[in-house]
Amino acid sequence: MFVYILLVILLIVVVLIQEPKSAGLGGMFGGGAETVFGAKGAATFFTKLTAGLGAAYMILSLVLSILNRPAAGGSAIEKAIQRDEVLKKLNIPTQPAQPAQPAQPAPQNPQPAGGQQ
Q: Does 50 map to a domain?
């Protein structure tokens, strides 16, 4: 984890140290169009270093995500399926019990709210 944080900080520093080319995004829409679409100078040391650090960042992110996977049966759906299978083996019903009967039965012929018809 320390290596990952160090790599991120180093990548940020290298990107900030680089000399801007044609005033950044402004060069895409204005005077620097020939460098965007055509003749490009040789890649500088910082450009190559940025590409290398970016690739290392992506690879390390992938490796860390693989190493930190949840244990087997980690999703809630898989756990629910396993729980239901265990309950079936133990002959425990998975459905809730029947609801209790209401205290008073519903009236047979309810009267409308407005009085007589």
A: yes
The predicted pLDDT at position 52 comes to 94
Number of domains forming the structure of the chain: 1
Placement of tokens 């209790």 in the chain: 100
Q: Does residue 79 form part of some domain?
A: no
* 76 vs 51, more confident: 51
Residue 110: its pLDDT value, please? 64
CA distances from 58 to 51, 61, 85, 117 (A): 11, 5, 40, 77
Residue range(s) defining the domain that contains residue 49: 2-67
pLDDT the model gives residue 1: 78
Largest CA distance in the chain: 95
Report if residue 106 sits inside a domain: no
| Report field, pTM of the whole predicted structure over 0.70 | no
